[in-house]
Amino acid sequence: MRNDSALASAILSLTGGPENVTAVTHCLTRLRLTVADPDAVDGDALGALPGVLGVIGKGGTALQVVLGPGVVEGVTAEVEKQTRATTSATSPSPTKPTGPAALRRVANVFVPLIPALIGCGVLAGLNGLLVNAGWLPGLTPALAAIASGFMALIAVFVGYQAAKKFGGTPILGGAVAAVVVHPGVEKVTAFGVHLSPGQGGVLGALAAALLATRVEKWCRGRLPGALDVLVTPTVTVLVAGLATLYGLMYAAGVVATAIGTGANWLLTTTGAFAGLLLGGLFLPLVMLGLHQALIPIHTTLIEQQGYTVLLPLLAMAGAGQVGGALAVYVRLRHDTGMRTTIRSALPAGLLGVGEPLIYGVSLPLGRPFATACAGGAAGGAFVGFFAMLGTKVGATAIGPSGWALFPLLTGNRGPGVAAAIYGGGLLTGYAVGFAATYAFGFRRGAGTEAGRVETRARETA
User: Fold this and answer.
1) pLDDT of residue 219 exceeding 80
2) Which of 216, 254, 333, 341 has its CA 20 to 30 A from that of 165?
3) Catalytic-residue membership of 219
4) Phi then psi for 447, rounded to 5 degrees?
5) Alpha-carbon span 325 to 319, nearest angstrom
6) Domain spans of the chain?
7) 127, 71 Cβ separation under 8 angstroms
8) What fold, for 4-87?
């Protein structure tokens, strides 16, 4: 049985103790810690802990511990519980995020929503299969209601999370974002046209909540306590609500429409090339942690079209990574340490959790990282080629990839065709990643332990 408390305690003991941790958060697979003293962190011992799949950011204040989906939530809760008493006294004052940090905070607005997106996405796919087959007609309306209920109100959840992440009152963020989906907005005219419920979607809700947070902070710094409790919520909802109705919803609607139109144009006109670029460049984005900036785009496409056509293309990067790791396993037949790492990380890689293979295998070796990207590019080009022929492959939710994405697949020609094309893309990524790594991923003599050490030294120099 998994013991999240014990793993959290072990992680904290190797990161300098609870008093050394100043901030705790997580994404779908990683526990993210901010530490005051990087020298107090034993990164090697941390990475060797049972249950830890990898460690990113050794030697810096921003530490990421890869735990995998399903595990990271429980461990994060335990870490927060054990550090709560000390972080309240040691956490630095919030600063205005800039650059990649701001992108990560925006992405973190959507991360807590992923479990609901996955659950509702699986139910939507199951309901589609039942409807197409004509089975259980008495159950399908109920499944449709359950699957679509969250998406109908996702703007409210986005607003709540956005205010929470950016230092506002969450319920006020949700209240302002609720304006976006309220049926009464159809009576409002902005820029000469009537608004429609849901116009602007999650982007409009995000903008509304961020504005509400700014207004709330401005009010709280200027009003005495007796007036603050009454005036601040009223002014926050009024100002941000009016701005949402008479500007943000319209502008966000234009942006959301452009995203959908752009994605469709990209795949129908340059599908193979677009897939090659997206599949080939996604591993570097994951390595830098910038892949989460795509979450709002995925969510917008799901809200608009019912699925995101980008995720299956990006998921091909994981296929190239798996193929490359298998080639390393074959070539380094005498390196028992590396082969053990691959055996332990490969199941996670097949299910779409690529960090253990990235940081434990391909990136330290150098060349296999590039050849794994080539495999991802080939898989992406395969899926993108069919999009050029008119067959789109999409995912009804974000989060899983690899083989775990199959239950979420759909497209304009049904889930069966989408699954077949996606499976073909995975096989292509595996094959090209393996072949490219086997042929070009090593210098001469890399099949021995001495050769591997020489290869690593040269590639990382």
Assistant:
1) yes
2) 254
3) no
4) -75, -5
5) 10
6) 4-87, 112-260, 306-459
7) no
8) Gyrase A; domain 2 (3.30.1360)
